[in-house]
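Quarterly update, task 2.4: alpha-D-galactopyranose-bound model.
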Amino acid sequence: MMQKTLITILLLTCSCAYAAQASANAALANKPPMGWNSWNHFSTKVTDEVIRKQADAMVSSGMRDAGYEYINIDDAWEGTRDAQGFIHSNSKFPNMKALADYVHSKGLKLGIYSSPGPKTCAGYEGSYQHESQDAQTFADWGIDYIKYDLCTFREIMKKAGTPQKAHELMVNAYTVMHNALLVTGRPIVFSMCQYGFDAVWRWGATTGGNLWRTTADVKDNYERMASIGFSQAGLSPFAGPGHWNDPDMLEIGNGGMTTDEYRTHMTLWAMLSAPLIAGNDLTTMSQETLDILTNKEIIAIDQDALGIQGDRVSAEGPIEIWSKPLNNRAKAVALFNRNEYPLEITVDFKTMGFNGKVKARDLWLHKDLGILERKYTATVTGHGVVLLRVTASN
Ligand code: GLA
């Protein structure tokens, strides 16, 4: 009897500690996480020095002050396991703990990357069957964010026999790592990366995901960025404070798109309440790139206190109008032109619930447009966007 009571108390304490840690982790992602990740620009060439320099540049450029917080190491930091099974970083990362201390000393947080599979996507050591050990190692190093990338776990899923069993294996793999992270007691953002399989937005939060990739990898060209971004229509009900849809990281400043296209990228991600994880070289970026990444009025749309993801209001061929509810009964309204040449686009504010005159501000021009009647017409550049912040005028 005594033993049974003790076990019950232990279980209760344990699940309370879990619940407390889970809600602490969700609080970390109360707003879509903002930061930088090594993959889009540095790929497997990421090093300790790269990370330190990006952290320095995040501060000196003003990005930290604009809200960017995480410096995330993606794939290719991993070395081998020792005889006890503990993972070590490879020679490009001589001392992870010292690196975390450095990043923390800049007022920033450090993220890392692993996979539920035996190998990561770039062929490095994954966390398969070492989840608790790895979670503890990451916590001991001072890691604040982990991107957990399905990669070779797909091979294990293929052997499951049925799609249902494969799904269960995947859900379990993410749950196991999430629980292992909770046990460490260190608040760590859990970023799920499995490319949107099995409509992850429906169940990602139940496995502890603070964000989950909804698509395959972004690329630094308009077609890929736009096909990913616009394909997010309809996903708004699944995001909210603590758990976000993640249409992948930003390519702004990597050179493959025009300024108008990068503005569209930033606008679309802000409308989607997407994590804003820059993916360019912060040490060499142009003023134009910095201006896009640190446009405070656009960041405010992404980070709005309501945490409601925007969605598509209408599509007329290449013309898409999206809106996003904001705090204080305001709305962000985006007029996208997916054609290559300029188009005149008219928005009718009634279609998004405004019944009289409105007050509007253009967030790329940083210009008040004054009081508008029911409709507004703008000429939108090819692949470009006009983004308005709209409130009722009375
Ligand atoms: C996958 C992910 C990318 C990146 C690479 C690293 O492709 O989707 O974001 O992490 O793996 O190998």
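Highlight for this quarter: The longest strand covers residues 319-326.
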